[in-house]
Amino acid sequence: MKAALVNGLNKGLHKLLMIITLSFFGLMFYFSWRTEQQYIKEQLRFSNLGAFALVLFLLIILGALLFSLSYYIRKLKSRTFLFLLIFVAFSVRLIWILTINTPPATDFRAMYHGAVGILYGDWAPIQREYFYSWPYQLGFTAYESFLLSLFGEETFSIKFLNVLYGVGTVFFTYKIASLLLNEFAGRIAGIFYTFYIPAIVMTSVLTNQYIAIFFFYWAFYLLLKNGINYKWNWIFIGILLALGDIMRPLGAFILLAVSCYMFLAFLKKGRIHKGRVVKKLIGIFAVFYFVHYLVSASFIAWGITEYPLSNRNPLWKFVLGFNHETGGQYSVDDAEYVARYPLGTERNGVEQELIKERLEDKSEVVALLWKKFNNMWGIRDESIFWSMGHQKESAQDIHKVLYASERMMFLLLLFGGIAYLFLSFRVEIDKKEAFFLILILGYVLVHLLVEVQTKYRFFINPALAIIASLGFVTLFCHTKLLSDRERKEG
């Protein structure tokens, strides 16, 4: 009776997870399609119907291209394919940073100047409210400073490492999708992420996202490949998640996703194994926070900061996230207003009042969430702006092509994800696949509450490519483009 109840709960959670994720994928697809259709209509002066038909035609062509490429390269031996994948991913990204020289801007400039300051023992660049408010940014800043101490003040070394981390993420995207289904799925995921525009163009930006997601997805691979069976796996997972979080603070959210995954494992294990699941999860948390403590204590001892690597202005992202006028995006007015009050209790009180006011009208809040969802997932990706914004006048045509191409690729990703969820609905999905649905769903929900910027999509894009690849292989099998034997063998 108890086993049947647990089994029923497990199936119910899986179905709920798939339904909610499918709903969100459908909305993302709708908003992205609308953005692409409007963009084509404006740029090419098409009618609504003409723009709709062109988007549909381009999506079909892109899908056919992906299938043709995937179908022919699946005949390659694994080592040959992996070599070609790594070579192409590296070459495309290296060519980009050699061609596009993006100067540091906004947060990236603050962290770079801070890195130069640490290098020469000049603490002025890091004794700013930016680092006082968000000491967690010092993790990546110190990393940049270390690279500058080895290779000089030029930014090329940081960008070149971005290339290597990007290639590493391509590798883990390929390996994880192969692990979840088969080699064919891995190849589709790897190819897609190799050529995905934001994953390429941001390499010339001094962003902390490349190194962070490299560590995160490495940890995900270890978690899914070895689970709790490998004796010391939990230590490596905890270290990698901590290093990723020190570079870019997503650790709390990711630990929650890992906990949900382990809970699904807990439901399926026997009494002895359940105890092991709990112990390993506690171990991951312990290692994560121990590494954080060591790094924070070291930074304080070296005089880089007097605070742990934490967020000392935790309400700020929510202030922005509930700004009705900007649709949850950055607000200069909000920044100027809260800056009048000293950091700490007084500013927290002011920010609490702002949030409270913005949540009073429930109907407006619902409208805000709808708008925020569109701003986060539907509008064109600003990675092109962050990479090439300094060339705005001289590269207008390139901008247009990249913007339109990115939305088409994102639509194809979503189509694959929807196909996977729809075609797999009647079967119980594996908990490893459920982990990425939890990750995607959680990331969507978090950004309904906090500030939204399209550059924040970066972290979740490999997960979307992984889920989409499962959908394409399943779709190929259902349409008899692949036999059941080919689907299993990959």
Commentary on this structure:
This protein is an all-alpha fold and 490 residues long. It has a domain of 242 residues. The protein has 22 helices and no strands. The relative contact order is 0.13.
How many individual β-strands? 0
Q: Which structural class is indicated by helix and strand composition?
A: mainly alpha
From the N-terminal CA to the C-terminal CA, the straight-line distance is 39 Å
Helix content: over 70%
Biggest sheet overview: none
- Beta-strand proportion: under 5%
Along the chain, the helix and strand elements come as HHHHHHHHHHHHHHHHHHHHHH
Would you identify the regions where 5 or more consecutive residues have pLDDT less than 50?
Answer: none
Total helices: the number is 22
Q: What's the alpha carbon Rg, rounded to whole Å?
A: 23 Å
What would you call the shape? globular
Average pLDDT works out at 90
Protein name: Dolichyl-phosphate-mannose-protein mannosyltransferase
GO molecular function, one term: glycosyltransferase activity
Pfam families: PMT_2
Transmembrane segments: 12-31, 51-73, 80-99, 160-181, 193-220, 232-264, 284-304, 408-427, 434-450, 456-477
Task: Show the helix and strand layout.
Elements: H1 2-44, H2 48-73, H3 78-99, H4 106-120, H5 129-133, H6 138-151, H7 156-180, H8 183-195, H9 197-201, H10 209-226, H11 233-247, H12 251-268, H13 271-301, H14 316-321, H15 332-338, H16 345-358, H17 362-377, H18 383-388, H19 396-423, H20 431-446, H21 461-478, H22 484-489
Helix pairs in contact: 1-2, 1-19, 1-20, 2-8, 2-19, 3-7, 3-8, 4-6, 7-8, 7-10, 7-21, 8-21, 10-11, 11-12, 11-13, 12-13, 12-20, 19-21, 20-21
